[in-house]
Amino acid sequence: MTFDLGFIFQVILTVIRYVPITLYMAVVSLIIGGALGLVVALIRFYQVPVLSPMIGTVITILKGVPLILVFLVIFLITSQNFNSIAKAIGLQIKYGDLPMSLLAIIGLSLMAMVGLSEAFRGAFESVKTVQFDVARSLGMTRLQTIRRVLIPQAFPVAFPMIVNMLINLIKGTAIASLVSVVEIFSAATQSASSNYKYFEAYIAAAIVYWLMTILIEQAAHRFELKFAKKMERARA
């Protein structure tokens, strides 16, 4: 068995066409998971009675469950119950009409929610207590304190973890291949199905993932530099 370098380039050209669907699933999951994670982090940070311990238990459970298992559970529950639930609430849609990428987005959003809720909660802890005292002395409500003090100061701390989560979500989109969604990993596997050159195909997929990661990290680094300069000008 010979190593086919040319086939690697051929597969790279093929899988690049599926970068948009991969980015779409990852970015949408990041937005949904980030919004849910922010709410979860705020509930746990302010120790809301009943909700805080309940959500803490759910997060602990989800942290200990592999992503692929979460996805399979979502798939089984949806495939078996969606039609009856849709009929009960009057929706004229069936399970077969759903885009399969939606299931992957749900699973990835849960993954993002768990990771980012912990990232946000840690970032909130970095905000000094005196900042809250000042906000109270100025007559700010809790919602105003969250919007004007807590989130603006916690965001720079959480930003590297948000970027890291995006990268993990991009790699995690490979689970969509389980329900026949063609993304980078699935496209690479299909490319090798006719000649069994899976080793070269997986190398090609790895190269594309690697290049995407480099571009994201470079863009994030430039954003951090610009944000830091903006903050320095604001303090001056």
Description:
- It is a single chain.
- This protein is an all-alpha fold and 236 residues long.
- Helix content is 78%, strand content 0%.
- It contains nine helices and no strands.
- The radius of gyration is 22 Å and the shape is flat.
- It starts with a helix and ends with a helix.
- The relative contact order is 0.16.
Write the layout of secondary structure elements.
Layout: H1 5-15, H2 19-45, H3 51-63, H4 67-88, H5 101-125, H6 129-137, H7 142-172, H8 184-191, H9 198-235
Helix content: over 70%
Q: Spell out the helices and strands N to C.
A: HHHHHHHHH
Measured by DSSP, the beta-strand proportion falls in under 5%
* Total DSSP E strands: 0
Largest sheet: none
Query: Mean pLDDT, as a whole number?
Result: 89
Shape: flat
What are its keywords?
236 residues; mainly alpha; 9 helices; flat
What is this structure, in a nutshell?
With 236 residues, this protein is an all-alpha fold. It has nine helices and no strands.
